[in-house]
Write a sequence for this structure.
């Protein structure tokens, strides 16, 4: 999906080229087929090949992925997600990023979320 969001559209071969440690071509095609069955991508015929395009807006896909992560790994507990984020990348988070997160939290409090 990252390759498709970056490029906008790509064939299976182009998706494979854009992946780090890419699996074989057949595996990429199978992955794209599953993504299409799930409604994440759609294909268009271009000559003899299929060109795949994301069918879900990138921001919507990000929110869906975070919700899935929250539900599956953190028992629907946002504070556990934040704790894990700070634990995993605490040394890499800058003061400015922490300040922005604090502002987001304060804004959510004011809005009654």
């Amino acid at each position: 999906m990252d390759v498709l969001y970056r490029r906008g559209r790509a064939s299976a071969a182009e998706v494979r080229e854009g992946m780090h440690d890419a699996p074989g071509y057949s595996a990429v095609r199978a992955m794209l087929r599953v993504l299409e069955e799930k409604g994440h991508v759609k294909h268009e015929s271009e000559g003899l090949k299929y060109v795949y395009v994301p069918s879900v807006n990138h921001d919507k896909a990000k929110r869906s992925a975070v919700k899935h992560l929250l539900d599956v790994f953190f028992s629907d507990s946002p504070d556990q997600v934040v704790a894990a984020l700070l634990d995993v990348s605490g040394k890499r988070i800058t003061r400015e990023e922490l300040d922005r997160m604090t502002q987001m939290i304060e804004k959510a409090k004011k809005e009654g979320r």
Notes: The longest strand covers residues 41-46.
